[in-house]
Amino acid sequence: MATLKGVVTADRTNQYLHLTGLRGILVLESFFWTFFEVFIPTLVSQLNQGAEYQAFLRRIFSVPFWNKDLIHNFIIILSMRTICNSFLANPTGQTYAATVVRRIVRMVVIICMGSGMATLIFTQIGTGYIDNFKTELPNEIIKTPAVAHNAVAALNSLFNLFWITTDFYTQAANTFWPNATLWVSSIIYFQSFTVYFLMVILPYTRPKWHVQGIGLFAVGSYWMASWGWYSATGLIFADIAINTTLKAELLKGLKIRGDWRVPYWVVALAFAAIGIALKYTWAVLPQYVNSMLVLHPYLDLSENYSPQTFEASGPYARLDDWFIICGVMLVVELFQNVRYFLSFKPLVWLGERSFSIFVAQCIVFWTAGIKLWLALSGKGMSTAGANAVVFVVGLLAVAVFAEMFYRCVDLPSRWLAKNTYLWLVD
């Protein structure tokens, strides 16, 4: 039993604090994006007509600080990077089973609690005030959450979170969720099994063939416009970080010919530059934001899809985001100073509470935040003044809500996940 307890707690060490800290940065960006999308929508979308200075700020600052697609896709790849750490570091059957069982139990608990809470709240208070808010601000980009018409519909929405393999964005639970971002959790859960399948092969094959093998899978999933190439990307970075042979190759540089090698920091800068250039191109020319879908051949060959129908089905794994994420992750793996900075305690503290903050900010701003804004606006306060008050009050409310969710749901879910695994094997 003592050995098993060591297995289920082995991955929560200081070795991976920088990954938690990186998640903390994404939490901060997500917080600002959530607030801006509701109360200052011109800062996040060209579809909302607002002040010209807000549109200018969006074009300049949204890419590095509050870009929706980049935040969500970075979280997905980072999650794929972290779930295989314990197994790759200690490739045993017990570690593998513990990784799979714990994650399933924990994700089911926290996602069901968060989704169920939001569904229950909107069922009780309704959504009419959101429609009033959208007209009064005005906000032309947010969608009013759907309301479950009965308990069975709400229960089915929770069930579908863990069983559907397509249409993540249009699933019921995502339409019930404020700002419709619960699809990210479904993608992470679903793609975890892709990582589970691939990672079990790595410890028993030649390290120098790992990148080519996983890369071949990534090319196939990219062809199919699947999320699998994001999962493969996260797994490659985990393997490079843990496998000493691959880590040494990373530090030597990219071999071009003979002894001529290009340092990987040059590759990282090139990738980041390509991704950022594409992002700013879409910011200036938003009509081309989905133009790169033509690079997924399956969409033109399939009878069920086309680039246009695929785009309409919801967010997808974007190539521009992939370039930026790979550039950042390469820098993280190459430089100890960067990992030291990301291990800064406040960032780690935020990263540990990432899902709790996600739940809190979505619910708080879409319920109490909007209601407070309407009350302040009704009393004659200016839009800027109301936004400032809502931001400060919302920040405090999110901090309290998130800490309560973390202690009452997140931490108990970890205890339950660990003890469920121990119960299954004892």
TrEMBL record:
Q: Where are the transmembrane segments?
A: 21-40, 70-88, 108-130, 150-170, 182-202, 222-242, 262-282, 322-342, 354-376, 388-406
Coiled-coil residue spans = none
| Protein name, UniProt field | Acyltransferase 3 domain-containing protein
Keywords from the named record: Membrane, Transmembrane, Transmembrane helix
**Domain of life, per lineage:** Eukaryota
Q: Taxonomic classification, please? A: Eukaryota, Fungi, Dikarya, Ascomycota, Pezizomycotina
